[in-house]
Amino acid sequence: MIRKITYTVLLITSFVLSMNAQDSTMIRKHPPKEKFTDRLFTGGNLGLQFGTVTFIDVSPLLGYRVTDKFSAGIGATYQYYRYKDRYYDFSTNVYGGRVFGRYFFTDYLFGHAEYEYLNLEAFDFLRRRVDVNSVLVGAGYFQRFSGNSGVTAMLLYNFTEDRYTPYTNPIFRIGFNIGF
């Protein structure tokens, strides 16, 4: 009987010690800390159209992954627009910037909100430049091709659309992100 108790105690002790050893090994193995640059990403949009209407859009961005689900950033915008036919020739430059935030609901689907400021030439009787402020909100899809890099497709709605806003609702954007 003492022998059975001794074997049982030894078996339980060795089981508990082995489990404790595995737990402490797992506790000691922390995931490596990410550097600041590991959370940065860059990218943006590039649009080209040629013909009667020529449109060139270059909109780079710089973002930071605050958490695994939330990222925020800034961007710049430059657009060249020209309309030319045999009766009319008009060209203008649009420039500005934006601040944005994205929240990932899944690995691929995200909500997007941004404030955008643009300076553009008004299409009214006097040739003058106007400031246009927009609040854009919508959803997007992110197709990763590695880590923080991939292609984005977004459908946005401008809640502050006015007569000088250069695009109409809804707004469809395709862009890219490249992680550092």
Indicate the topology.
Layout: H1 2-28, E1 40-49, E2 53-65, E3 70-84, E4 89-104, E5 109-121, E6 129-146, E7 149-158, E8 171-179
Antiparallel strand pairs: 1-2, 1-8, 2-3, 3-4, 4-5, 5-6, 6-7, 7-8
Shape: elongated
Q: Find the structural class using helix and strand composition.
A: alpha+beta
Query: What's the pLDDT, averaged over the residues?
Result: 80
Task: Specify the oligomeric state.
Answer: single chain
Proper CATH architecture of the largest domain: Beta Barrel
Name the helix and strand elements from N-terminus to C-terminus, one letter apiece.
HEEEEEEEE
Main sheet summary: 8 strands, antiparallel, barrel
When the domains are counted, the total is 2
Name of the CATH first level of the largest domain = Mainly Beta
Low-confidence stretches: 1-28
Query: How is the largest sheet built, in terms of strand order?
Result: 1-2-3-4-5-6-7-8
Question: How many beta-strand runs?
Answer: 8
Report what the structure shows.
The protein has 180 residues and is an alpha+beta fold. The chain has two domains: 1-30; 36-179, Porin (Beta Barrel). It has one helix and eight strands; from the N terminus they run H-E-E-E-E-E-E-E-E. It has an eight-stranded antiparallel beta barrel with strand order 1-2-3-4-5-6-7-8. Strand 4 (89-104) and strand 5 (109-121) form a beta hairpin. The chain is elongated and about 65 Å long. The model is unreliable at 1-28 (pLDDT under 50).
